[in-house]
Amino acid sequence: MGCSSSVPDRNVGRIGGLNPENGGPNDAKNLKVKLVVLGSSGVGKSCIVLRFVRGQFDPTSKVTVGASFLSQTIALQDSTTVKFEIWDTAGQERYAALAPLYYRGAAVAIVVYDITNPESFAKAQYWIKELLKHGSPEIVMALVGNKADLHEKREVPVQDGIDCAEKNGMFFIETSAKTSDNINQLFEEIAKRLPRPDSS
Amino acid sequence: MPSDSSSDNDDQNPNAIPSPNSDSMDLSLDAIENQLESISMTSQAETRSSNQEEEQLTIANGLLNEESRSEVVDEFEEELSNSNSKAELSSEVIMSSSSVWRYNNLEAEEAEAPSSPSSSGYAGERGSSNGTTSVADEDINDDSIRESGNPGGSSSQEQWVPRERDLNEDDASISWRKRKKHFFILSHSGKPIYARYGDEHKLAGFSATLQAIISFVENGGDRVKVVRAGKHQVVFLVKGPIYLVCISCTEEPYESLRGQLELLYGQMILILTKSLNRCFEKNPKFDMTPLLGGTDAVFSSLIHSFGWNPATFLHAYTCLPLAHATRQTAGAILQDITDSGILFAILMCRHKVISLCGAQKASLHPDDMLLLSNFVMSSESFRTSESFSPICLPRYNPMAFLYAYVHYFDVDTYLILLTTSSDAFYHLKDCRIRIEDVLLKSNVLSEVQRSMLDGGMHVEDLPIDPASRTGTMFSHPGQPRPATDSPDRIGDAFFGVGGPAGLWHFIYRSIYLDQYVSSEFSSPINSLRQKKRLFRAYQKLYASMHDKGIGPHKTQFRRDENYVLLCWVTEDFELYAAFDPLADKALAIKTCNRVCQWIKDVENENFLLGASPFSW
């Protein structure tokens, strides 16, 4: 499993889009962030989210329609809590035009590809470009190579993922929603990288 | 695991239902052809047997009366020839101009028009070369397909379990050709968009053939509506750049199949809007399959519902039976939130409505409700978490997307909130929390679960009023008897013994309310096969009552070897009732009057009243 890094801490941006109206002020100890998951269909976006939120894995693929909304709170070692409000988007082409609705104002974006599918890696790079161009400038981005348990069928080398992430100032990790490998690490690492509001 | 395709079993195997005249039908394809020829038009195409009687009824004083005259229709007196020769097959092509082309030799015709080098049309039509009839062949093979493909086979009608399509099938596979009912969507350039069976891409040649037929006729300044060939009907529907085709040997009327194609098109519009036409304006060879990625289950579940859901041909929706106060509680909170800028709020339990509410002047078409609930129920991801998705209501505005918030309260009960604003998610989520609060506090959700178990109207509960035996048709307004008053019944486990006067089942459709109520199935309509046969009988009855050529009709009394079917259409309602085939006609008519009275007595429980400006 590769793990690489870079993004310096920045401020959380909240601009328009599908953002909670009554979000309430983030205090230094209790963060609430909007997180969007992007990637082509069938890479396991929903599986990652459901593994993280409910600890479940359902091998029967259920195609996401539009976008699903879930939330999960985690506690960090420094006793801060982070509540993720997760937009798990549909990977289908027809929903691509709607993506800005979900990533606009997001503090975190997770771009997922399937390590056994080079096309999904190419699509991931498309999403990264899109986010750099139209996402909030302070967005924390993670590149995730999923289905790491299928290493015999691997077609995207770890190094390609690391290189791509480094080039774009992202955090990189390979996960398996099936075995639960690195799922919690992914979200914990994101939480650590979140910009903290100034405590007054 | 319940099989998803008990109805598909039927589709593949219609001859397994024994009927007195099925032997004669199986004798030869010629016999079938003769039958087809002797039937003037689609509406008459029921499988009539010579013992069937059809009688005229008239209406007097708003009541259903029996007229003394009756006639026995004997269209099939002419002897069915028993030749095994396949060369005599004829087929007809019906165009919108109603001209009928006849071919006396299907083989020759097939060799000409519909066959392409890669696809040679229907082998099943032509019989096998070794001299046995193809019908018999199909019987045997279908049984084996059914048994290997669908073990189990006893699922509830409404249960539909998505399954993987056999993508190895294509138009060259025997199994593919044996399918009883195919649906295709293709583009005007002949590119496949959707196929019920097999892999669309492998069916490119077949799609091109269908496209060629359509454009050949269009080039002649006409439009092809249906091609009949042997037992098969090929029904065409052209919607701008989208072509829809159904190939069926299920003996459903043309009007029904065409209606199903309309719904299939509507389902596609619901997913993509009609602006998909623009893609074809820019590029006629546009490949639409990627745009419909992941929606296979939506289409196959809709097609499955063509075999069990009366809403697919009645163009009406049905409500979950609930105490009036319970439904009002649900309606009030929905009304409350629609006032805050929501277009439609719909609370449903499976395919039945608990309550619904629309913004002022916004009205929801029953077909849109059918397509929307089918979309939500067949997309598994909605059950996992609350969702927000663009959808289009084709009858409301086929050009624009609305945004749907979908949330399941329990495994059957879900809420759909529709809005025009793409930013409204958090507002809709708040609305849902408010609604959920009210529903929980007032026990609506547990009432819903109870109603699911109790079921709706049971024909055994039809109030028997002695006064009705004395010659007057109208029974007195009997004591209201709530449909839910049957605590000893546990859902599907209960099967009654049939109602009075041999009443087996009924469907009542209120025209003003756009709603229907259907009685629970009762003995002897127990098995899925019997339910589906009754469903198809109703479907034919509906089509014949609404036939524009020979209708509209007011009443129909039809007796065949399976049922007595009685249909009564007034300005306010349509009643379809099925009786024991030996039922007495006068008694059956009396019983129908009682059913209508009964439905009025319990309308508060079975209909959503006040949902439309009309009230009866």
UniProtKB/TrEMBL annotation, chain A:
SUPFAM superfamilies: P-loop containing nucleoside triphosphate hydrolases. Residues 1-23 are annotated as: Disordered. It comes from the Eukaryota. GO terms for molecular function: nucleotide binding. It holds the Pfam family Ras. Keywords: Nucleotide-binding. Coiled coil: none annotated. SMART domains: RAB, RAS, RHO. InterPro entries: P-loop_NTPase, Small_GTP-bd, Small_GTPase. NCBIfam families: small_GTP. This is Ras-related protein RABF1. The lineage of its organism: Eukaryota, Viridiplantae, Streptophyta, Embryophyta, Tracheophyta.
From TrEMBL, chain B:
Residues 181-302 form the FUZ/MON1/HPS1 first Longin domain. It comes from the Eukaryota. Transmembrane segments: none annotated. Residues 12-25 have a biased composition (Polar residues). Residues 1-26, 60-91, 110-166 are annotated as: Disordered. It holds the Pfam family Fuz_longin_1. Residues 502-602 form the FUZ/MON1/HPS1 third Longin domain. InterPro entries: FUZ/MON1/HPS1_longin_1, FUZ/MON1/HPS1_longin_2, FUZ/MON1/HPS1_longin_3, Mon1. Residues 113-125 have a biased composition (Low complexity). GO terms for biological process: protein targeting to vacuole. Residues 342-434 form the FUZ/MON1/HPS1 second Longin domain. Belongs to the MON1/SAND family. PANTHER family: SAND PROTEIN-RELATED, VACUOLAR FUSION PROTEIN MON1 HOMOLOG. Plays an important role in membrane trafficking through the secretory apparatus. This is Vacuolar fusion protein MON1 homolog. The lineage of its organism: Eukaryota, Viridiplantae, Streptophyta, Embryophyta, Tracheophyta.
